[in-house]
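User: Run a structure prediction on this.
Assistant: Running it now.
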Amino acid sequence: MNNDLYILPNATEPQVLHSSLPLHPILVVAALAISLVSFALWCVQDYRLYKSLGPGGPPYNVYGWVLTSFIVRPYTLSAHDTTWTGDYPENAAHKEILALPNRKGSRPLILGIAPQRQFSQNPGPSMNARVTSLFTSLVLRNPRSLQQNLSSLEKHNIALFVHPSLLAKPQNLPEVATVSRGELGHIHGDASMHLYFSPADAKEIIEKGWAERHRCARTAPWWLGGRKYSWKIGDTFLIVYAPRNEEELEILQTLLRASARFMTGEETVVAPLKDDQEMEHEHDHCRRKSAPAA
């Protein structure tokens, strides 16, 4: 009998495998160096983008960038998912929202998480003043429902708030009104704005091309706890694109009213007036006052 059969290795015992292609330490160091350089370049580029957004909610410095890019980002929607509406209801939108036309052209370029800004299709500088005027008009026409102040989220921009008398009765308001400390939304320097809407209205507004979701407007993924209102932002907080002309400014009047009705819980909220409409309204009021009694 061949004695070689008795000197075969035991298959049940672990065998040490010797690679014929050992990984050279220089290759490991090179791979690590390339990874570190790539990460450093990404950080520089991402920080420059953060600074280009201008001041917003987080500190406008390296700390704010680190907070946004490494702490907040895991909880956010990807930039490609901000037009997703699958978690909104199919019905119950206001009839004025259902009647909105589709926005003409492609969507503008929206960048950033916090802050979030519009980088294309920007109107002239006068549009910001006109949008701000609509904010003011909405408050003046609904003084018992709304107030205007600096944004608690952005800290640098004018915002609309639910009137304190209504906030004192949270049972009559949507939950997000309390979470946002009453803030409906605010305007940005580029004339875009963030606004809250009812879920059904938000679905229509996004699908018709007038807005998209804030990157934090979501329920956190299950692996991050599945929390609602991450960073004090609800899932119907939308960035509304800056109006480009008179027609779109009139669309914004409808959107502002819809936001106010949802956040105040009052269907009687009236829409704001544009500057020319405000003047005409004042003239009509003066004519009625000066008209002789019948």
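The two ends are 133 Å apart (CA to CA).
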